[in-house]
């Protein structure tokens, strides 16, 4: 029964399978936006496959030949679209008529029947399980071909149809196999898409939570200054100074929101040369009101002419987050927060020291990971954001801490002249 020329069979299997090697490259977002190009590529891929099957059939005995041409057609119809499947039917029928013979009519019957079956099944098809998809496709390939052969039998009763039945049974097995492969390709594509999407959502959710957190710093500062302005007798000069600091802080808050909102379409950061002394001075001024509320004094000491490269707003933010933690660590008993900057060889070394409650080794090792917080209202995002900014500026962080004694953050940035 299975006296096929093995070369013919293998060649047909190859002709049917090779479009699947390329099919995975056609599954991408960019191509989805160009339907005409995608259709043309699908048409060429499956069209070539169909023609090759037709021109290199499997010979069973002299004069009796079969081929797998219906398989690429069914695959294209289910996994591309109507335009492609109609174009393929037209090509298939046209070429077969050009070759001549009675077979052309049988081909017309089986191909149109396949198109009809697929059109009917199409809507439900993609909701089916993998096994059912394989079964449906195999059944369509078997049924349509058999009807074609059945018509032949009506005209020519001498026709030996047993060969045809076994051949089409074998063909159905390959049909199911091809569906299995094409579905696996689509599945892995879908998974990688979902992975990218979930990764993006994770970052967006982390960042959006930190926006709320970061906005708290400027708001606290502004609140402190407004409290000062309304409570005590402040001279005109101080009023102007506080007013300006409030405006600066509100601008910073706005800048943070803008920065994070534009996360989806990143714009180039403004990298510039920063005078570390100026920035430390600014940070200490900005945090003063917050520190005052906790009975903490801020001391800033720095060498002149220390320069690093980076985005000003982000640099400030990274220092503020760390310094703010220092202040919060001393909340209970007050203390001194020291911020110093010195040159050490080719580095600018920043030290942020507090004499607050300190941390254990386990806590130090978790610093910088998201949502690690020991505070009732903490978000555990401050150090993560700071560390990311510092690493982005090619900086190194070293933390030393002792429970009950205090903490020192040492940050080294490459120095620029
Ligand atoms: P949050 O301040 O919202 O808790 P952070 O990421 O800024 O989040 O800090 C994470 C945790 O690290 C804090 O909850 C705190 O326990 C610990 N921590 C950070 N800096 C210090 C410090 N200077 N002294 C003591 N603990 C600190
Ligand atoms: Mg914090």
From TrEMBL:
GO CC terms, sorted: plasma membrane
Coiled-coil residue windows: none
Species name: Paenibacillus solanacearum
Occurrences of domain Histidine kinase (ranges): 210-417
Entry EC number(s): 2.7.13.3
Main location: membrane
Protein name: Sensor histidine kinase RcsC
InterPro entries reported for this sequence: HATPase_dom, His_kinase_dom, HisK_dim/P_dom, Sig_transdc_His_kinase_LytS_TM
Keywords: ATP-binding, Cell membrane, Kinase, Membrane, Nucleotide-binding, Transferase, Transmembrane, Transmembrane helix, Two-component regulatory system
Membrane topology: Multi-pass membrane protein
GO biological process: cell wall organization
Molecular functions (GO terms): ATP binding; phosphorelay sensor kinase activity
Enzyme's top EC category: transferase
Location(s) in or outside the cell: Cell membrane
Transmembrane segments: 9-28, 40-58, 79-99, 105-122, 134-155, 161-182
